[in-house]
Backbone:
């Protein structure tokens, strides 16, 4: 079999030449970050990291240095900006990769459209339970932060450890970005076999401690 072995070696050498030489490609990367500076993931904080990654990938002389990542930053207003930008822009050339958006509702719209077009999306957000649906709607989403269900696993472990059976979820629902709602939705989703009740605070229904205490004693 020495002949076959030689052939294999040739093949591997040829393959590695192909791998290192022809992986040159222009990739359009569309990045959605809020220009509004009040978010942890605002443009001013995150853009330097993305530019740094771009520079490092290029400079390393490594496997990916042949790729030219053409990065275009667009605004995310945590509402509709990212979705409309993606739709408008894609009438011409569709991006190859999308980074962001982070906010739940905005990410949902963008990821649905991107998944339909087979464009991968990487987001530090989109943490709600629904995004775990990888069959269709959100097939092309990769999340780089632990989703809310992961936090819920911690609660489930605590409940099992202490043999607790019931919980009252107290949260504020801003009816806009609904981060608190989605956070506790993970708990609700995972702990459906426990006795779970909710006490929701909104702008028109601020915290009323007497009522809250009544809710707690009703549950016991
Ligand atoms: C920035 O976002 C915050 C929080 O959502 C909001 O209160 C503020 O009005 C925004 N600022 C501008 C200039 O849009």
Residues:
């Amino acid at each position: 079999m020495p002949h076959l072995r030689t052939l294999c070696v040739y093949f591997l050498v040829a393959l590695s030449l192909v791998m290192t030489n022809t992986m040159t490609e222009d990739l359009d990367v569309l990045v959605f970050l809020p220009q509004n500076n009040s978010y942890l993931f605002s443009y001013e904080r995150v853009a330097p990291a993305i530019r740094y990654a771009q520079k490092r990938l290029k400079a390393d002389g490594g496997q990916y240095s042949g790729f030219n990542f053409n990065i275009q930053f667009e605004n995310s207003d945590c509402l509709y900006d990212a979705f409309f930008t993606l739709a408008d822009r894609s009438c011409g050339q569709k991006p190859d990769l999308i980074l962001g958006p982070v906010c739940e509702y905005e990410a949902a719209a963008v990821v649905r459209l991107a998944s339909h077009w087979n464009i991968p999306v990487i987001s530090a957000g989109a943490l709600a339970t629904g995004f775990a649906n990888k069959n269709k709607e959100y097939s092309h989403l990769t999340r780089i932060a632990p989703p809310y269900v992961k936090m819920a696993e911690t609660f489930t472990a605590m409940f099992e450890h202490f043999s607790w059976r019931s919980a009252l979820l107290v949260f504020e629902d801003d009816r806009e970005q609904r981060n608190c709602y989605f956070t506790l939705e993970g708990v609700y989703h995972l702990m459906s076999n426990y006795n779970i009740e909710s006490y929701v605070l909104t702008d028109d229904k601020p915290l009323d401690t007497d009522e809250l205490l009544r809710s707690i004693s009703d549950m016991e």
Q: What stands out?
A: The longest strand covers residues 25-33. The chain has a mean pLDDT of 89.
